């Protein structure tokens, strides 16, 4: 088969065509980063925060998006780009970017416990000791950007508990002169409203649902370059892109699940591409909208 006939595939995908069915399916199911304009803009903003010189009022961000809109995957990509340095010969690793999952409820001590546990440190029983130890270790590993994923979980707690947790986050930012990133659903807006100072500091960035556009069709073309089929599936056509977005609720995580399921279905059926039957009958369950 000529290289022109495979122009719909990326260079790293073309050799996969010659592999076994199991290897091709594993290739399709691999987790990978696909860049798109809004994600690139957010990553650029995070890079700017990482490079920001220390000062008392450091910049911050709140990243808002629906469940499975790509928030956590974006944070994973940012942390992947800034892996900890083992710092052989030193007392601690050097970790400029640290991401932790926020506690399921707003509780100041749970916040410190999450930090200490994430860094494999002993958790003392005293709240004051927890706070001091968390600050000491964050300073020792030279954190510059501290990310709290699922911070919108706090909305289920009483306002007083939420305020206490927000004060703890603000205290960490001020004491260590670091950038804070809060990640969550739209409920995060309700949380930060309780602290106007933190709300102003954590500037909003959003990952809205995708709609049919030039950008969404380009996204589908990016997906297609990674699918080991000898024939183009033409996922970027307006009709197919629109159908996939509608079925997946416009959420990039759901789009990825749907395309992956359709690709695996087509491969198992011996199809040369993803066709309408694969998209309709691959077993994908759309999210409750």
Quick description:
Helices cover 46% and strands 10% of the residues. The chain folds into 2 domains: 4-30 and 210-281, no CATH class; 37-207, Rossmann fold.
Tell me the layout of helices and strands.
Elements: H1 21-29, H2 37-50, E1 60-65, H3 71-81, E2 97-101, H4 108-118, H5 127-140, E3 145-149, H6 159-176, E4 179-184, H7 187-192, H8 196-201, E5 202-207, H9 214-224, H10 238-247, H11 252-268, H12 276-281
Parallel strand pairs: 1-4, 1-5, 2-3, 3-4
Helix pairs in contact: 1-11, 4-5
Task: Write up what this structure looks like.
The protein has two domains: 99 residues, no CATH class; 171 residues, P-loop containing nucleotide triphosphate hydrolases (Rossmann fold, 3-Layer(aba) Sandwich), CATH 3.40.50.300. The chain is 46% helix and 10% strand. The protein has twelve helices and five strands. A five-stranded parallel sheet has the order 2-3-4-1-5, sandwiched between helices. The two termini are 43 Å apart.
Identify the notable features of this structure and list them briefly.
five-stranded parallel beta sheet; 12 helices; 2 domains; 289 residues; 46% helix; Rossmann fold; alpha/beta
